[in-house]
Amino acid sequence: MNTLSILNTVSARQLQRDYKSIFANVNKTNTPIMVISNNEPQVVILSIKEMDNINKFFS
């Protein structure tokens, strides 16, 4: 099952133009955002809180 398809996405160009509000949204909602370049997933942006939750889960 590919769970990445349910993430919110932004293009790499959109991230370059509007990173402050994208980061603020990720931090406010704790919802990961996938960055797409050339129609391919590249990375996922997580809030620090969400990353801590993931680390606790795998510890």
Automatic annotation (TrEMBL):
Source taxon at top rank: Bacteria
What InterPro entries would the database entry show?
Answer: Antitoxin_Phd/YefM, YefM-like_sf
Q: By its UniProt entry, which Pfam families does this protein fall under?
A: PhdYeFM_antitox
Q: What is the annotated role of this protein in its UniProt record? A: Antitoxin component of a type II toxin-antitoxin (TA) system.
The family note in this entry says: Belongs to the phD/YefM antitoxin family.
Its name, as the record gives it, is Antitoxin
